[in-house]
Design brief:
Length: 337
């Protein structure tokens, strides 16, 4: 049977930094300490004029340079983004050209956020195991801060921009295990941008500002999130997802070296760790320097902890993500397989 594994990850973060001191200067109602205590974030990278294709291309180029990968060997390009350059064509087509990939490469976008990396691994594994590709380039890239109203301090404190490029390829040993995936579209409006596409076209009405009781400003053209509902959804979804992942992979938490969850916020991560009864030493917090980068939080965390020497060859890693859709996913990785 054909097997698939992650062979390399590289990341790209835009150079502009938005730190807590700047947020305090802009809003004046919080302190740096309060922002950090609520979010676990000290700074986040944010785009200025960059597009998703810029971030995705930069991450892909780093992957080729840092790991000595020949771009001519890539068979398929998957791009996960909530912030495409255009309605059409797929941004993956633009990235294929800018990266100089072969014209025989398949390339497509898919629109997911918090669970997007896990879904991408599932798609890449399917392409490899089905014999359609030997090497798949999976890029997660988002410019979500551009979708937030400048005066929505609750969301601006959380989000950052970034991209990760991951190479998945045919392997002699299984590096990507079995998945648990799920969707509940009945909750789509709890985390969405209402206006902009065909269901709700931009108009003067969609630019009308409203202010909630906490002073956060929003319009239908900006990102909206029901924070308490997303927290509730995450904590209810994670335990059965983890249980199914363990059952499908015939493993348990005792055999897991590290748990890397979607880096949503400090509060959510702490509550998630407690709910899943994961020991502190196994649970990864990687939100402090990057913020919530949507589909890229998990690969960025894997990249960072490997570089820090915390993730080693042979380690079993549980990855789990949940959010926009509403959707969720989990899997077990064997690192360095």
């Amino acid at each position: 049977m054909r097997k698939a594994a992650i062979k390399a990850i590289s990341i790209f973060l835009p150079p502009k930094i938005l730190d807590n001191a700047e947020l305090v200067r802009q809003f004046g109602v919080w302190t740096e300490r309060k922002i950090y205590s609520k979010t676990g974030i000290k700074k986040r990278h944010v785009v200025e004029d960059e597009l998703v294709s810029d971030l995705a291309t930069a991450a892909g180029e780093r992957l080729f340079e840092e790991h000595g990968i020949e771009r001519s060997e890539i068979d398929f390009l998957l791009l996960c983004t909530e912030c495409p350059d255009y309605f059409l064509p797929a941004t993956a087509c633009i990235v294929q050209d800018r990266l100089g990939l072969r014209k025989s490469v398949g390339a497509l976008d898919y629109n997911l956020g918090c669970s997007g990396f896990i879904y991408g691994l599932a798609l890449a594994k399917g392409l490899v195991m089905g014999g359609l590709a030997r090497k798949v380039l999976l890029i997660t890239a988002d410019t979500v801060t551009r979708a937030v109203h400048p005066m929505d301090k609750s969301i601006r404190t959380l989000l950052g921009d970034g991209a990760a490029a991951t190479l998945i390829e045919l392997s002699e040993t299984e590096g990507i295990g079995e998945f648990s995936l799920g969707t509940d579209g009945s909750g789509f409006s709890k985390l969405h941008i209402q206006a902009g596409a065909w269901a709700c076209r931009p108009s003067p009405k969609t630019r009308v500002e409203t202010t909630n009781r906490w002073g956060n400003v929003h319009t239908p053209e900006h990102l909206y999130m029901e924070g308490p509902e997303i927290l509730k959804f995450s904590l209810e979804t994670a335990p059965p997802c983890m249980a199914e992942v363990f059952e499908k992979n015939k493993t348990s938490l005792d055999e897991i070296s590290l748990v890397v969850a979607h880096q949503a916020s400090r509060i959510l991560l702490e509550k998630l760790r407690e709910t899943l009864e994961i020991p502190e030493e196994k649970f990864v917090f990687n939100i402090e320097e990057h913020g919530n980068t949507a589909s890229s939080t998990i690969p960025i965390a894997l990249h960072d902890i490997e570089r820090a020497g915390r993730l080693k060859k042979g380690d079993k890693v549980l990855i789990i993500g949940f959010g926009v859709g509403l959707s969720w996913g989990g899997a077990v990785l064997t690192w360095g397989a």
